[in-house]
Amino acid sequence: MLEKLIQAAFITFLLQLIAVLTNTTPMHPKAVSPLAEMSGPVISSTFQVLK
Asked: pLDDT by residue (tens digit) across 1-51?
């Protein structure tokens, strides 16, 4: 349990770091979110792999 918490904290830190580093370039928001483009089975299988 503690190992998964540490992994989640590390991944969150890396994502925040990437967000800060890429903030210097202008981003064009998409009209449709990537999750809306993915089908239900693909999303559920992705979450099952992450478990």
From this structure: 899 999 999 999 999 999 888 876 565 666 655 555 555 555 565 555 555
Residues 6+ apart with CB under 8 A from 43: 35
Tokens of 22: 């890429």
Instruction: Determine contact, residues 43/35, Cβ cutoff 8 Å.
Output: yes
CA dihedral 9, 14, 24, 31 (to 10 degrees): -70
Query: Residue holding tokens 């800060």?
Result: 20
3-state secondary structure of 14: helix
For the whole model, what pTM was predicted?
Answer: 0.43
